[in-house]
Write a structure and sequence with these properties.
74% of the residues lie in helices and 0% in strands. The N and C termini lie far apart (44 Å). With 232 residues, the chain is mostly helical.
């Protein structure tokens, strides 16, 4: 339960709201031709009103479509862990904004819980897994990699609930970084027993930078692992 001292609502920043709308648009454009997607469709997918879409994209669908294309192109030039971090930023902003409803739904404690709400949660989880696999560059994962991704999503949900219980501490950005590290660590550990994951990690490392999350995690962990190895 969120503390009474913690605000139950936080308005999204301009950047976060634009990101939310662009994510919704990209999801629709990925499965439909642009001419078949309306602003009403984007508003519904983002869970906002049509006027709000116009507020951020006064040029209508054409401006939104062009912005979505630019966003997609920019994202392809970013390291995978940075792209994942941006997704987590928006996810945690949503959790922060809808803390009471999010907590009730995931805990199964909502009086409005039905088979439909359960199905919606499951659908969100499947969509999240698909998005993570897209970031990993995998279309049809094997059982080990699929289990890894689903395990990480479960950990993200659990961490989000604990974060709400702990009055949203640590700060969202620190939680974001820790969750990215968590996925990287899971991938690294699984390379020892799964050839597919090993190939994925090699491709990811080729796209990372010397100052990115993977490099920072390695600099912190390698000395500790080295000390442990000397004890074996």
């Amino acid at each position: 339960m969120t503390s009474a001292a913690t605000p139950a609502y936080r308005r999204l920043t301009v950047e976060e709201r634009r990101g939310q709308l662009l994510d919704a648009a990209l999801g629709l454009f990925a499965h439909q031709a642009p001419e078949d997607v309306s602003l009403d469709d984007v508003a519904e997918a983002a869970g906002v009103s049509r006027p709000l879409v116009y507020r951020y994209f006064p040029g209508g669908k054409q401006q939104l479509y062009e912005a979505a294309l630019r966003s997609s192109a920019d994202a392809l030039n970013r390291p995978p862990t940075e792209r994942l971090g941006r997704v987590l930023d928006r996810y945690l902003a949503f959790v922060d904004e809808h803390d009471a409803g999010f907590s009730a739904l995931l805990r199964g404690g909502s009086v409005a819980e039905t088979s439909r709400t359960t199905a919606i949660v499951d659908e969100v989880r499947r969509a999240a897994a698909e998005q993570i696999l897209v970031h990993l560059g995998v279309e049809r994962p094997g059982p080990r990699l699929s289990m890894l991704v689903r395990t990480w999503i479960a950990a993200v949900e659990a961490a989000s609930l604990i974060w709400l219980d702990e009055e949203k501490q640590p700060p969202a950005r620190e939680l974001r970084d820790w969750l990215v590290d968590h996925l990287v660590a899971l991938l690294a550990a699984t390379t020892a027993s799964d050839a597919e994951t090993s190939d994925v990690v090699r491709r990811l490392l080729a796209q990372e930078t010397a100052t990115g999350p993977v490099a920072r995690l390695a600099r912190r962990v390698v000395p500790v692992v080295g000390e442990a190895a000397h004890l074996l």
